[in-house]
Design brief:
This protein has about 200 residues and is mainly beta. Helix content is about 5%, strand content about 45%. It has 1 helix and 14 strands. The strands form 3 sheets. Strands 1, 7, 8, 9, 10, 11, 12, 13 and 14 form a 9-stranded antiparallel beta sheet that branches. A 3-stranded antiparallel beta sheet has the order 2-3-4. A two-stranded antiparallel ribbon has the order 5-6.
Amino acid sequence: MGGPANAIEPQGEADPASLSDGTSILIPVAFDAEIASQHGYELRWDGSGAAYSVPKTNAENDFTDSAFLGMLDADNNVIDGQRGAVARGTVWGNCGTSSFDFTAGNSQFKTSYSIAPNYGAPISHDWTVTVTTTGMGGQSGWYDLSGLPSWGSPSWSATRAVTQNYTGHANGVASGEVLVTSGTICNSGNPADSY
């Protein structure tokens, strides 16, 4: 599946095969027309029926600097099976990347996301991390990192101390969604790490 003939090649999007452990692609899962309109975008479709969030200033068939969404249902949710479709070796439909890693001798974790330029800037995120330590004294912990990124920055990150009892093994995963100015709602892809 390719984009329109005059669409620019996606920039800043990750090839899933090149992602390191603890890194996932951000996947578009829905479209918010009101948010898009407030930030100068609108929903348009190409000849195949695929949806894009396009800058309102673009000419009728100009998909330059557009956010590819794929096929949408009646409620503007991305239909499964269209996410991350590959054309000519390019991964389409990825909002960017997200990550989760244990750091500081496994006493902390760091999680982050970075939005691809054609999707706009992040507005807000609902983001949580779950850490489960295993073995003697193992526990599960839930960390709510939802909030606002630095305005105008394409990326966000947070580092927190692991508050559960330390054990020799633990698993952690970040999950959530990011709302961006193109009106796209991007899912974390659930990056994970363990030790």
